[in-house]
Amino acid sequence: KNQVEQSPQSLIILEGKNCTLQCNYTVSPFSNLRWYKQDTGRGPVSLTIMTFSENTKSNGRYTATLDADTKQSSLHITASQLSDSASYICVVSHQTGANNLFFGTGTRLTVIP
Amino acid sequence: DAMVIQNPRYQVTQFGKPVTLSCSQTLNHNVMYWYQQKSSQAPKLLFHYYDKDFNNEADTPDNFQSRRPNTSFCFLDIRSPGLGDAAMYLCATSRSGWNTGELFFGEGSRLTVL
To answer: Of A30, A93, B23, B40, which is least packed with CB atoms within 10 Å of its CB?
Structure first.
């Protein structure tokens, strides 16, 4: 069964600290994995995409990693800011097409001053 | 800026009173989606259009219907909203043939059912 699991479910960190969010998936055959940021009451926005051949990709203070062998991805946030408070959703694409997407339930990150 | 626009952002309706949510896009993407997202849950795909071809998810209730009169617009009709239909409804678009899975979401329409 194709599934995406994220951990932790929620996380509270102090402003300026780093954190790492996890995504494990069983989607096969795998096409790509995206991390989305969803602010409260807003639509998700794509942060980064990881394809099979990519191990690490950075987007500013966000760094995503992918281990296609163990089917795990992580999103590392460096020097967190209050504006990083949001839900981070991992979405894995099945090779059958861009319409076959599997969503994780997200990690709710709260950054406190 | 090119974007996906949803209206209204907030909709309050009474139990059983029909509701229509709208979505427009300036990205010229040929795939449009409607997702339902309840609190602390992942978005759940209701249906999508590939150009004019309508694709309904097997577990989408008949209470939910959709229309896409042209490339730019898509509507979600909820015929007889129940309390369980209270949720955020997200419209998204993607470019077909570009299998990166990137969805461009609107800001969502939050539905409250009284």
So the answer is: B40
- How many CA atoms does the CB half-sphere of A30 hold within 13 Å? 25
Residues in chain B: 114
Strands B109-113 and B104-105: unpaired
Say whether residue A6 is in contact with chain B using an 8 A CB cutoff: no
* C-alpha closest to that of B44 among A8, A102, A9: A102
The tokens 């009284």 sit on which residue?
B114
Per residue in B29-55, pLDDT tens?
A: 989 999 999 988 889 999 999 889 998
Q: In this complex, which of B33, B101, B107 lies closest to A42 when CB atoms are compared?
A: B107
Amino acid of residue B35 = Y
Residue of A44, A49, A89 lying closest to B100 (CB–CB) = A49
Chain-centre distance of CA B40, in angstroms?
A: 18
Q: Find how far residue A79's CA is from the centre of its chain.
A: 17
DSSP B63: T
Q: Which chain A positions have a beta carbon within 8 Å of B99's beta carbon?
A: 31-32, 93, 95, 97-98
